[in-house]
Write a structure and sequence with these properties.
The structure is a single chain. This protein is mainly alpha-helical. The chain folds into 3 domains: about 120 residues, Arc Repressor Mutant, subunit A (Orthogonal Bundle); about 60 residues, no CATH class; about 70 residues, no CATH class. Helix content is about 35%, strand content about 5%. It has 14 helices and 4 strands. The chain has a two-stranded antiparallel sheet with strand order 1-2. It has a two-stranded antiparallel ribbon with strand order 3-4. β1 and β2 form a beta hairpin. The radius of gyration is 45 Å and the shape is flat.
């Protein structure tokens, strides 16, 4: 009665006592009186498992024995898809936390038995592995016959010896007769396949490689090269260098070093070669600058590359296309029909008749 366990904070989180770390998380630890699950740091801080695999492992540990933990059951419970959940289960299976085996029941039906170990390799290090009594039991094992098999398999003959002490001795002499002994032995041999649970939980000898979930970030595109003129003559180089050095008069954040100017000169020279005016280039490089601007040289390189105008078309390119010459109509001298020809005369039919008559 003198020890008091409060389940709520006595003051606001801002007033939590104790030495606080300079940065990072601050833990508020409240004991759980019920409904909690013990999870080892080897799983919660695993260096090779994904966050989804660790979360599924913690969820499986919190479920009672006999719960459905298949891919479809987990996909119906969580918003992640079946492919991501299947990849996370393969991670747990590769690191020894999960074991899935296909067995055949007495009625011929194939089922998947899932065994989860909260500490892989504990049996090999000399520890003990505890398996719940109901683990591995399916819906077919709810009849009284399988339960009798487990009781007899756990303690076959020694459990029957202490019971006769309460009854007279002559009645117990008849029990070890040969007739009841075969009946007790025949029952466990009828269904040994109903409890295929491995005694120490083995770590897979040839584990699968760890499965990495696909990243949701967009793939990085390769940077386009800076444009270059066909011939970087001294006049173009001098004009481009002057334009780049003069940018800080129009935008205070566009302060370039001598090395940056030397690297960006070919890009500005390519614009000048395509008959772009200095005012147009300056407006394209200084308009709508982001704030704050951390890398001015990178921004100018990007704009010189992506906003490069096409070459100006020539006079012949701007001329309207010529129409094909049209053959004029002529009137036939014989039948007075219209036909196309550059010279007047007769049509094709009249010329044929004239040749036949000749």
């Amino acid at each position: 009665m003198d020890t008091q366990h409060d389940s709520a904070l006595t003051r606001a989180p801002a007033g939590i006592p104790g030495p606080h770390p300079p940065s990072g998380v601050i833990h508020v630890v409240i004991p759980h009186p019920s409904r909690f699950t013990v999870v080892g740091n080897h799983l919660a801080q695993h260096a090779e498992l994904s966050l989804l695999a660790i979360g599924i492992a913690v969820h499986i540990q919190s479920l009672p024995a006999g719960a459905e933990v298949g891919i479809k059951a987990l996909a119906a419970r969580f918003p992640e898809g079946e492919r991501a959940i299947a990849a996370a289960l393969r991670e747990l299976e590769a690191h020894g936390y999960l074991r899935r085996t296909r067995i055949r029941l007495a009625n011929g039906r194939m089922v998947t038995r899932t065994v989860f170990c909260n500490q892989p390799g504990a049996g090999q290090r000399g520890g003990t592995v505890s398996v719940p009594q109901r683990q591995g039991a399916g819906p077919e094992t709810r009849t009284p016959a399988p339960t009798r098999v487990r009781e007899s398999s756990a303690a076959p003959a020694p459990t029957r010896v202490p019971e006769p002490t309460a009854t007279p001795a002559p009645t117990r002499v008849r029990e070890p007769a040969p007739a009841p002994a075969p009946t007790r032995v025949s029952e466990p041999t009828a269904a040994p396949e109903l409890t295929p649970v491995p005694e120490p939980f083995p770590v897979p000898e040839t584990p699968y490689p760890p499965v990495r979930l696909p990243s949701r970030t967009a793939p990085t595109q390769q940077r386009r090269p800076l444009p270059h003129p066909r011939a970087l003559i001294p006049e173009l180089r001098q004009a481009a260098s002057a334009l780049l050095a003069d940018l800080r008069r129009h935008a205070e954040t566009l302060v370039l070093s001598e090395q940056d100017v030397a690297e960006l000169v070919p890009g500005v020279a390519a614009w000048l070669e395509r008959d772009a005016s200095t005012d147009a280039i300056r407006h394209a490089l200084t308009a709508d600058l982001p704030e704050p601007l951390k890398h001015p040289a990178r921004l100018l390189r990007h704009r010189l590359t992506t906003l490069l105008p096409p070459p100006l078309p020539g006079i012949h390119d701007l001329a309207p296309p010529r129409r094909a010459p049209v053959t004029p109509f002529q009137t036939c001298d014989g039948c007075e029909r219209a036909f196309r020809s550059h010279d007047p005369g007769r049509c094709r039919d009249c010329r044929a008749l004239h040749r036949e008559a000749a």
